[in-house]
Amino acid sequence: MVGKQAHLDPFWDNLDWTLGQLFMMGFDGTTVTPQIRQLIEQHHIGSILLTAKNLKSAEETTRLCYELQKCARDAGHPVPLAIGVDQENGGVNSLFDEIYIRQYPSAMGIAATGSTDLAFEVAKATAQEISACGINWIMGPCLDVLTNARNQPLGVRTTGDDPQEVSAYGVAFMKGYKEAGLVTMGKHFPSYGNLEFLGSALDVPIITETLEQLSLSALVPFRNAISQGLDSMMVGGCAMSSAGLNIMHACLSDQVVEGLLRSDLKFEGVVVSECLEMEALSHNIGVGGGTVMAVNAGCDIVLLCRSFSVQKEAIDGLKVGFENSAITIDRVRESLRRVLTMKSKCTSWEKALNPPGISILSTMQPSHTALSTKAYNKSITVVRDKNRFLPLSNIIEPDEELLLLTPLVKPLPASAASYALSETVSAGSPEPAVWERSASVMSGERVFRELGRSLARQRNGRVLHTSYTANGVRPVHENLINRASAIIILTADANRNLYQQGFTKHVSMICNMQYTAGGERREKPLIVVAVSSPYDFAMDPLIGTYICTYDFTETALNSLVKILYGEHNPSGTLPGTISQSQKLHQSRQHWLVEIFNDERDANALDNLIKAITESMPPNQRSELASATSNSFLLHHPEVIESHFVVRNSTTQALYGFCSTYFFRATGTGVIGALFVDPARRKLSIGHSLHNRAIRTLLQREGIKRFQLGSRLPSIFLGIPTGHGAERKRLRAWFANIGWNTALSRPVCSMVARNLSTWTPPEGMAKSLGSAGVEFDLVYGWEYSQAVLDHIKTSNRQGLAEVYKLALADPGACGVIRAKRSEDGALVGTVVLYNMDSSLAEFVPAMKDTGEMTGGISSPVISPAVGEYSTLLQGLILLGMRQFKQQACNACILDYIDGDGNIDGLSSMGFDVLHNFEEVSCDAATWTMVPPS
Q1: Where do the N-acetyltransferase domain residues begin and end (predicted)?
Q2: How far apart are CA 8 and CA 286, in angstroms?
């Protein structure tokens, strides 16, 4: 082993040999090609990436690995090559062999089994198989947390959206790989689990989470894997953009590699860059310059997947960088030491030149086959079966017809290299036969045809099988649906292939509208099977029977057939937060919910608020800071309020509190707050309070819609979204009890400080002067008619009530009006209030500043006005001037739409105080989520 400061053999004084160890390269071909031979012999590259395009069978893979190592040994390499593959299982395997290489569930499928012990055994078996073929480096585990699980391309390649669960399974996989003698690679640092995609191939996917947010969630599995001995780490090519962070490519940034990964997370292993052939990176920077930047950032190995000309460009670029002193010899030797240390753990010339291959694979085959079957049987998850359609013998006679509907799916790329191959194949490459057999990109059509045959073999009646596309439900589908006695629909990543969602819902509607010969309505049995991402219909109760397989390999679908026909009882559970919600439902307690009594409960509510604010991390400020029990009591004549508590009747302590308001003016029922004692979460207290609140609001005469978040009182404007992992937990919790969080609206509160030294942005006064409006400040009820008529142009909840409070309190509140110069028409208003006003009682942030503060609330701009942002800034600017004259040193904006106004207000001196997601839904369509 070569230690961090160990003396290097004089052999490595040769720069060409040293630089060669800093590259990992792939190639096209199933034998040693002239190109890869030249890279090994003349450029001395030290690591090889093998992908599906290189690997035809276990026997040929063994021969290829031997030939590569022999080429290196004959060329004078002092240490063997590191040979790596992606072998994640599920739909992402580089090596496939029907006889000797077993298929195992994807990472998320393994998590569905609920067993980290099984994860270890599967990882160990996977590593043993590829190690037997001569591979010594596995490109795994995948440690990404699916912070935004519904829209990410990683899908089932990671275990889910719970960082602790991802961490537990990631470490189990890693230990299994190590047990079999391979070195490991965590990916894709700092996380591919919540990327935003801008559209073009030249646009780099972006991580928008702050380092603080990443630390609370996405970095947890990486941190734990590092502490358990992870050997290497792949750093992604994504961009990072958030407060104080602006990085074009993570793997080229010393802030990410040396700062975050090395210094903060204490990683001492080998850092591998994302493939520098990715189009966005090579187009924006160039491969030669990118290679220099990657090494200087702290990458020990630069990955280049397949293009020989680009690979030579990278080698030349690194040499030029060294010659120009852009890279130091100490930097290069630092990486060399790490690479040699890693190689010493997994290979030697004796091992590299004697891969056991088929001889040992044949002995492992029986036990690994049994392990594969066990893993798949335990992973298949029946999420719902409301009408007991399973097994199929419950719903269909032996001689009746069964219809199987399957989507036309694109192959799932295993890596950047296999993606490049998919482009070649689609362009007419002579390789589709290899592609077809590769489990890294399972052909859906071939596997689905076999599924139809397997279903048919189990029964006497016919199995009708056809595919569906983005063309929707066609006459041929309708005819088959009418013929069949039961229907099975497969979906594969329907959240990213929306035609599948539409098709499935259309078929569901047809099945629900079936009638008997006597004219009675009779639902036709429909079973929906998600064969990739489990999120397709996980939260859609209208799909009554829903099964998840987590991949669509033949082995997975064989286990599915056993479950459909009752030969095996399913035991899998959904991953991550959905799984936790499911488990919670199964043991849900029903708490006694009582109406809040001010005299009895006020002190206890104050204590509960204090417990919640004190439980927050030191660097976070609770939305409840400075709130009291009085902050929730409006006593407004046009608002019906009902508040609820779960309490200990013996000690009088409150365990949970929920406030509700019914705004008559808009017919809106609002949940304005819902919180639970931090020491008593996950006990169904929140669910009990929420159910009581919704049932109460449903009884209000004139109820039209529900809303999470309230402008008045202005404490929680919606689901809090500023606390990383907590944001994800809250969104999942509310989604699970029926709220469509995907249709949320961003809102926030903001604060401007140091008004005593504040000055308006240059040019803003001039811009307002040319807007054709005049402003004035009015107080009192005599101005109410025009103002209240104006705000009717907006139907947002709580507006009328805020303005009426302000107009009725002229000593502490006012309204700034904007009138069109040409005709005096009112086109904009905003409420001003001070700390002595009745409004301030319902805005705890006013007191939380700790200094003299003014408040600005509820701007309303006429829809007919084109210059919305200019007018909004004008109204707020005049409010700030007014408060500055009154010797206030801070100003609160208690409610601002967060989807386009933030930048303009930030330029005026405002900072975001708290972020929220306001969620609304139609009360007529609300479905109570029943306790399980």
Answers
A1: 638-708
A2: 32
Q: Which residues of 607-641 are buried (b: 16+ CB within 10 A; e: fewer)?
A: ebbebbbeebeeeebbbbbbbbbebbbbebeebbb
Kindly state the DSSP code that residue 142 receives in the 8-state scheme. Answer: B
661 lies in the same domain as 676? yes
What integer pLDDT is reported at residue 589 of this predicted model?
59
Answer yes or no: do 708 and 754 share one domain. Answer: no
For position 388, what pLDDT does the model report? 84
Q: Are residues 157 and 279 in the same domain?
A: yes
Same domain (yes/no): 70, 124: yes
pLDDT band at 366 (very low <50, low <70, confident <90, very high): very high
Round to whole Å and give the CA distance between 812 and 853: 12
In a domain, residue 930? The reply is no
CATH code of the domain containing 650: 3.40.630.30
Give the structural domain span for 517: 381-411+428-569
Residues 6+ apart with CB under 8 A from 711: 717, 796, 797, 798, 799, 802, 857, 858, 894, 895
Q: How far apart are CA 655 and CA 668, in angstroms?
A: 27
**Residue 577 confidence (pLDDT) above 80:** no
Same domain? 179 vs 221: yes
User: Is there a single domain that holds both residue 649 and residue 708?
Assistant: yes
Q: d(Cα 222, Cα 230) in Å, to the nearest integer? A: 9
DSSP class per residue in 442-469: --HHHHHHHHHHHHHHT-SS-EEEEEE-
Q: How confident is the model at residue 728 (pLDDT cuts 50, 70, 90)?
A: low
Half-sphere exposure (CA, 13 Å, Cβ side) for 682? 9
Domain holding 460: CATH number?
3.40.50.360
Q: Does the pLDDT of residue 103 top 70, yes or no?
A: yes
Does position 308 have pLDDT exceeding 90, yes or no? Answer: yes
Q: Residue 286's pLDDT is what?
A: 85
The answer, yes or no, to whether residue 711 has pLDDT greater than 70, is yes
User: Residue 3 domain-assigned?
Assistant: no
Q: Does 641 or 684 have the greater pLDDT score?
A: 641
CA dist., res. 217 & res. 719, Å (int): 18
Q: How does residue 930 score in pLDDT terms, banded at 50, 70 and 90? A: very low
Q: Let me know if residue 578 belongs to a domain.
A: no
**Type of residue at 926:** W
Instruction: With beta carbons less than 8 A apart as the criterion, state whether 707 and 670 touch.
Output: yes
CA distance 298 to 265: 14
Q: Tell me, what's the pLDDT at 382?
A: 94
Which residue pairs, CB below 8 angstroms and at least 24 apart, start in 844-848?
Answer: 844/623, 844/624, 844/625, 844/626, 844/627, 844/628, 844/631, 844/715, 845/625, 845/626, 845/714, 845/749, 845/751, 845/892, 845/894, 845/913, 845/914, 846/626, 846/892, 847/626, 848/621, 848/625, 848/626
Measured CA to CA in angstroms, residue 915 lies from 574, 709, 717 at distances of 29, 12, 8
Mean pLDDT computed over 859-869: 80
Cα–Cα distance, 562 to 95 (Å, whole number): 27
In a domain, 67, yes or no: yes
Distance CA 530, CA 550 (A): 7
| Arithmetic mean of pLDDT, 849-860 | 93
Q: Assess whether pLDDT exceeds 90 at residue 109.
A: yes
Please indicate, yes or no, whether residues 539 and 629 belong to a single structural domain of this protein: no
The domain tally of the chain equals: 4
The pTM (predicted TM-score) of the whole model is 0.63
Residues 756, 739 share a domain = no
628 membership: H or E segment, kind and range: none
Of residues 431 and 96, more confidence is placed in 96
Average pLDDT, the chain: 87
Q: What is the pLDDT of residues 378-425, one digit of tens each?
A: 999 999 988 889 888 878 888 899 999 999 875 443 333 333 333 333
Q: Please, how many CA atoms are within 13 Å of residue 825, restricted to the half-sphere of its CB? A: 9
- Three-class SS of 388-443: CCCCHHHCCCCCCCEEEEEECCCCCCCCHHHHHHHHHHHCCCCCHHHHHHCHHHCC
